[in-house]
Amino acid sequence: MEHIWPAFMLIGLIAGIFTGYPVAFVLAGIGIIFSFLNGIPILFLSMGVQRIYSGTLTNWLLVAIPLFVFMGLMLERSGIAERLMRSLASLFRSTPGGYAFSVMIIGVIMAASTGIIGASVVMMGMMSLPAMREAKYDMKLASGLIASSGTLGILLPPSIMLIILGDQLRVSVGDLFMAAIVPGLVLSGLYFLYIGGVAIFAPHRVPAPERIEKTSLGQTVWALTRDLVAPLVLILSVLGTIIAGVATPTESAAIGAAGALILALLSGNLKLPTLGGALYETTKTTAMIVFVMIGASIFSVVFRRLGGDAMILDLFNIHETSPHAVLFMIMLLVFILGFFLDWVEITAVVVPIVAPIVAQLDFGLPGDQVMIWFAIALAVNLQTSFLTPPFGYALFYLRGVAPDLPISTIYRGVIPFVIIQITALLLVIFYPAIALWLPIALR
């Protein structure tokens, strides 16, 4: 009976989420309701207001979120990615799996230059699905590939998730950006190996197109080089300034937003409707994230007042369980929550609760390295939340641009890629150097 109220809070949160009511208001409402039920003085809630003001509304680090969102949306609307997709498809046109390799490469480049999941999945679905249909691709593989490659943007920097994780865990966002590069490339490499294996052992699932447009190799290479320059310059300008210590993540986000505007101008696509649409979507996305963080602040303040921290400590029993067993329990909890919650809610609600637990565990690493490693493992884990039904956002983005594609086909198509993501997560957990090598080497 000692932890009855925190348990009821969690049950109320889950029930509120399934009502379909906005999660931000569910979080705040549950916190306020349980504060009244337990006779918590109204003045106590002023701590939540103070935390919202100092931790969210005046946090300069979080200014990077709308800037990176705007950068990604402008880059997607500038037509750069579409031209690059055509050039890559032309390069691999006579190879089994050529379209699949093109989608994967585009996914990596878009992830490293935008970080906007919805834009990446929708864009690649609209551009590549018709061509894959015509080439008689296995639609399960095609849909799983498009959805999973589009989610790379949440892991590879500049990633909005890493910015929020850095804020929640009090870890340098620059270090997280550097730490995410190698795991992101490892995950991308596993995707490539899977596609290559399918192309070799089951080429009928990814056949080369029957009709091939005649272009010389020189023309193809020139077009590919031309279309690669813009995103590479943007990537280097954003990540290079952070890694070199020239700019903070917020300043580099401003550089990226300005660079995206310049690229849109040079491509002739900087028009008032385009700019207005990007600003509207940026405002909507940023408002959603900020409101969830505000609601989570109120929820966590009341949850801790009612003994929620002690309940979680007793649940994981950290003093009698091995550190890796506790870590696996946390990762399993996050993975299961990913079936029902978005990464923003998981990051805002769960991370502040489990972070102190991880900080007390001995993994044989310095304290600051433990939290960087933990953040990257969480990011890889949370990436699966976009692909796991019933509420995987990437699945519904893809269904939105391909309404004739059965949802069962999409669900079956992502299974191999979820397994690959779990494999990458296990690699990061068992080999922390995958995440820690680059930030340590560049210090």
Task: Give a written overview of the molecule.
With 443 residues, the chain is mainly alpha-helical. Helix content is 75%, strand content 0%. It is built from 20 helices and no strands. Helix 6 packs parallel to helix 8 (139-150), helix 13 crosses helix 16 (343-359) and helix 17 (367-383) runs antiparallel to helix 19. The chain starts with a helix and ends with a helix. The mean pLDDT is 81.
Q: Specify the number of helices.
A: 20
Structural class: mainly alpha
Q: Averaged pLDDT, please?
A: 81
**What is the distance, rounded to the nearest whole angstrom, between the alpha carbons of the first and last residues?**
49 Å
* Largest β sheet strand count, sense and barrel closure: none
Report the sheet-strand fraction.
under 5%
Topology (SSEs and partners):
Layout: H1 4-18, H2 23-37, H3 45-57, H4 64-77, H5 80-91, H6 98-113, H7 117-134, H8 139-150, H9 160-169, H10 173-201, H11 217-243, H12 249-266, H13 272-305, H14 308-316, H15 323-337, H16 343-359, H17 367-383, H18 393-401, H19 407-430, H20 433-441
